[in-house]
Amino acid sequence: MNFRKGRRSEEPEINLIAFIDVLLVIMIFLMVTTTYSKLTALKVTLPTADTEQVASQPHEINVAVDAHGQYAVNNVRIAVREPADLARELSRVAKDGAEEPVVIINADALAAHQTVINVLEAAQISGLSRVTFAAQTSKK
What does the angle CA 21 – CA 22 – CA 25 come to, to the nearest 5 degrees? Predict the structure, then answer.
């Protein structure tokens, strides 16, 4: 027996308003979090290799500092202790080259810090601004 003669069964519906709200929120989230590659791209001009051009070596002054605080300039041991005396020696060696030389400091691992600072001070006194440190790579 069918007791529901007069009643119709309701068909299920998808609530479109809630569906549209969720889609709008997702769309806004995606728009905000998207990164655009055009905005982050850098315009870089890469150098071209020219095999005909030979790179010139800069004039170098090698200053070695041993563990006892003694100095050697270009493998010639010098008997100085003060930065002013070392600056005179650096100025004398720097006059040999046409361009400003690079001062390379080769300090022993056991050398006192003050002896290395003396070389830096002597380079400053003699007007040499291009200073670098030599390092030994570890052999594993």
Answer: 90
